[in-house]
Write a structure and sequence with these properties.
- The structure is a single chain.
- The chain has two helices and 21 strands.
- It is mainly beta.
- It folds into two domains: 156 residues, Beta-galactosidase, Chain A, domain 5, CATH 2.70.98.10; 105 residues, Distorted Sandwich (Beta-galactosidase, Chain A, domain 5).
- The chain has a nine-stranded antiparallel β-sheet, with no helix packed on it. Strands 5, 10, 11, 13, 14, 16, 19 and 20 form an eight-stranded antiparallel β-sheet that branches. A four-stranded antiparallel β-sheet has the order 1-2-3-4, with no helix packed on it.
- A hairpin with a 4-residue loop joins strand 17 and strand 18.
- The longest helix is centred in the middle third of the chain and has 6 residues.
- The chain is globular.
């Protein structure tokens, strides 16, 4: 299928999706990286994209929704967050959906290049659908080889917020988590609202499926399926200064709320398929 793409930043190809009601998204083929989502009737993007993001072949894009696979973060021998986010994917379909929205699917399969990093046969599909005020992003992992393999993964979602200091996350109370900043694995969330005060990097294990990110003037509902964990990340001012691809003050306008399978690797048998998804609903 010949699906038209347009030239994006750094001349990298991207797919632009526009629903009948005006909801809009942009997906770069490099990394199947969703970089923009504007709900119908909205006056701005709900995803954060750094003004200093590097748009070049093989470089990670800072912001949007990167796909972490087959390794989350530095939890293994591969480069940070694995190779999927810096590898070119193929568009397999794009266009209107039966419900009046619009969607696209991108695919990545093992190749000589991926097998230099990870010696397994696999196929990934990232499906994006949107309409009105909602956005669905789903990741499907298929084991196409003769033996089982294990992986960790995430939809590393960067949300755009007006001010992270006045933003709260609701719904995590009671969940246990690993605090990577404090290097503690035995923490538990006791507050009904998580407030962001400086650097935060937490992996909430077996997190609730429904969360809300609340700002002074708006909210965002998040529902996950298949992904057992939720990661909350913001580098804070000091650590942000060391990130060359993040503009000064960018950390104040972003908060990562990530659907993840990070605490315990997923073991996928030969011929088996796993799927995880995240729905964002603007309010």
């Amino acid at each position: 299928m010949n699906i038209p793409t347009v030239s994006g930043a750094g001349n990298l190809p991207k797919v632009v999706l526009v629903a009948q009601d005006g909801a809009r998204a942009e997906i770069y083929l490099q990394g199947a990286h969703l970089t923009s989502w504007i709900p119908a009737g909205a006056d701005g993007d709900r995803l954060f994209l750094s003004a200093r993001s590097r748009f070049s072949a093989g470089a990670a894009i800072r912001g949007g929704i990167p796909v972490s696979f087959p390794q989350f973060s530095t939890q293994g021998p591969l480069p940070n967050h694995g190779f999927a986010r810096v590898t070119a994917w193929d568009v397999v379909r794009a266009g209107p959906t039966d419900d009046g929205g619009v969607g696209a699917a991108l695919r990545l399969a093992d190749s000589d290049a991926t097998r230099q990093w990870w010696p397994h046969a696999f196929a990934l599909e990232l499906e994006v659908r949107l309409s009105g005020g909602w956005l669905d992003v789903g990741l499907t992992v298929s084991n196409t080889g003769p033996a089982s393999f294990a992986f960790t993964a995430a939809l590393h979602t960067y949300l755009r917020v007006a001010d992270v200091a006045t933003t709260v996350v609701r719904g995590l109370a009671g969940a246990g988590y690993r605090d990577k900043v404090l290097d503690r694995d035995d923490c538990r969330e006791n507050e009904p609202e998580l407030r962001i005060a400086g650097e935060i990097d937490r992996v909430y294990r077996i997190a609730p499926q429904d969360l809300e990110v609340r700002e002074r003037e708006r909210s965002l509902a998040i529902r996950t399926s298949g992904f057992p964990d939720t990661v909350i990340w913001n580098p804070g001012t000091a650590a942000a200064a060391s990130l060359a691809d993040l503009e000064p003050g960018g950390e104040q306008r972003m908060l990562c709320v990530e659907a993840a399978a990070a605490a315990v690797p997923v073991v996928l048998a030969a011929g088996a398929t796993w799927r995880g998804s995240q729905r964002l609903t603007a309010g």
